[in-house]
Specification:
- The complex is a heterodimer.
- Chain A is mainly β.
- Helices cover 0% and strands 50% of the residues of chain A.
- In chain A, a hairpin with a 7-residue loop joins strand 10 and strand 11.
- By secondary structure, chain B is an all-beta fold.
- In chain B, strands 2, 4, 5, 6, 9, 10 and 11 form a seven-stranded mixed sheet that branches.
- In chain B, a hairpin with a 6-residue loop joins strand 4 and strand 5.
- Chain B is globular and about 40 Å long.
- In chain B, 34% of the residues are buried.
- The chains are: A mainly beta, B mainly beta.
- At the A-B interface, strand 6 and strand 11 of A face strand 4, strand 5 and strand 9 of B.
């Protein structure tokens, strides 16, 4: 079945460090891929998305490229801030966008 | 504007009891989704409504779980004979239109259910 696997956390970085959170997926057909973020005490928010192979999603300095050949959608940011501390979820959706398959989440801690 | 709201924010109940969890979607959103998030896991799809009807309930774990959306707006997730394994955060999301590439789902803050 369809599924998403992402790297386990927590990931602890110093401010201004480079961030990579790995995400790979298993799906038939042509899924769309997403990153959601959950800040402490808040609900899930869409961070970025890519709807077809080789698309790059970007938002707030975060980027992820849909790689069909490696079935990956790794999240990157060149310089993290303390305010980026949150849990990040990779997710996929197919066809009519009616449900998501989420990864287990990666907690990011950024220290000043 | 107002986002998705869920009540109660926390619910503690005893094993075997019945509970209802409520979701108020963003006004005008036709699609509504329920997910369950267990500790340390990502959200798991339960059921999806388009309007008043359940378009996909394939994620409901068993017949103790049921959800309704009688007027196409507010939805209630109902759990009968609760078990300790039902303890989780129940998330609700809504979107303007399903089946479109711009269909962003907006999530509520969740209801944390604890079954003692």
């Amino acid at each position: 079945g369809d599924s998403v696997t992402q790297m386990e956390g927590p990931v602890t970085l110093s401010e201004e460090a480079f961030l990579t959170i790995n995400c790979t997926y298993t799906a038939t057909g042509y899924p769309s891929l997403f990153w959601y973020v959950q800040y402490p005490g808040e609900g899930l928010q869409l961070l970025l998305k890519a709807t077809k192979a080789d698309d790059k999603g970007s938002n707030k300095g975060f980027e992820a490229t849909y790689r069909k050949e490696t079935t990956s959608f790794h999240l990157e940011k060149g310089s993290v801030q303390v305010s980026d501390s949150a849990v990040y979820f990779c997710a996929l959706n197919k066809g009519n966008f009616n449900k998501f398959y989420f990864g287990s989440g990666t907690k990011l801690n950024v220290k000043p | 504007g107002a986002g998705v709201s869920q009540t109660p924010s926390n619910k503690v109940t005893e094993k075997g009891k019945y509970v209802e969890l409520r979701c108020d979607p963003i006004s005008g959103h036709t699609a509504l989704y329920w997910y369950r998030q267990s500790l340390g896991q990502g959200p798991e799809f339960l059921i999806y409504f388009q309007g008043t009807g359940a378009a996909d309930d394939s994620g409901l774990p068993n017949d103790r779980f049921f959800a309704v959306r009688p007027e196409g707006s507010v939805s209630t997730l109902k759990i009968q004979r609760t078990e300790r394994g039902d303890s989780a955060v129940y998330l609700c999301a809504s979107s303007f239109l399903a089946g479109a590439s711009y269909n962003e789902q907006f999530f509520g803050p969740g209801t944390r259910l604890t079954v003692l």
